[in-house]
Design a protein that fits this description.
Blueprint: H1 3-7, E1 21-23, E2 26-30, E3 33-35, E4 38-49, E5 52-64, H2 67-85
Antiparallel strand pairs: 1-2, 2-4, 3-4, 4-5
């Protein structure tokens, strides 16, 4: 997969994108990455700040075997990061 595909949303996911989950005014969209060891945890975290949508791409080294588990754990990890860093994840 090319760098441009990763940047602009091409491929990488395990199928159709899930609806974002709202958590503390952040939108979390799971985006686990398939790889040789299973699925790497990943998510897109977005929030509207001063009329602008800010985005943070969370990628973890953690891997799990099923795509469903990867989505679940990706959302959990994103919530943890939001709790720890808040709006600081964008800067």
């Amino acid at each position: 997969m090319s760098l441009f595909s990763k940047l602009f949303g091409g491929g990488g996911g395990s199928g159709p994108a899930r609806e974002p989950e709202i958590y503390k005014d952040f939108r979390i969209t799971p985006d686990p990455q398939s790889g040789p060891g299973g699925y790497r945890l990943g998510a897109r975290i977005e929030k509207e700040i001063d009329g602008e949508t800010k985005t943070h791409h969370l990628v973890r080294a953690d891997t799990v075997q099923s795509a469903e588990d990867a989505e679940t754990y990706s959302v959990q990890k994103a919530k943890q990061v939001i709790d720890e860093q808040g709006d600081g994840i964008f800067g």
